[in-house]
Amino acid sequence: MNPKERRKLLNSLPGGESSVLRWRELESLQDCDLYDVLGELGYSLIRQTRVNRAEAFTYNQLLWLNDMPEVSAATVKALVRQFVKAGTDGLENSKLFQTPEVTTAGGLEALRLLGKPADVLLDVKVRLFAA
């Protein structure tokens, strides 16, 4: 989940990250995050599309989402929509909290109601990939 560790892992692969990106393209898996592509290749896990993973998150985390302030839940859902658009890279983008969808939903202030925004984002990622 740590972006630096993730980057290190991708770069340690034969051919680096570009080999996984090429594999994803050749297999027509652009709608899947690299997490799912690598999970299938390395561990025979059943891959999910980013959309399916986001839908599973919303369903599986319904109690968690309902237990937080409405503005915070809207912001968490906006973060998940950024994942749908751009995968893990979207969640690790330095401009994530400045995207119109996230700021309109409530942005950093809404996430601060739950704790430190960086910790909330990490929690979202953990829950998203557990979906």
What does this structure look like?
By secondary structure, the chain is mostly helical. The protein is built from nine helices and no strands. The chain is globular, with a radius of gyration of 15 Å. The two termini are 15 Å apart. This is EcoEI R protein C-terminal domain-containing protein.
Radius of gyration: 15 Å
Mean pLDDT level = 94
**Unreliable runs:** none
Q: State which percent range the strand residues make up.
A: under 5%
> Helix count?
9
How many angstroms does the end-to-end distance come to?
Answer: 15 Å
> Helix share of residues?
over 70%
What kind of sheet is the major sheet? none
Q: Could you provide a short overview of the structure?
A:
This is EcoEI R protein C-terminal domain-containing protein. Helix content is 73%, strand content 0%. The protein is mainly alpha-helical and 131 residues long.
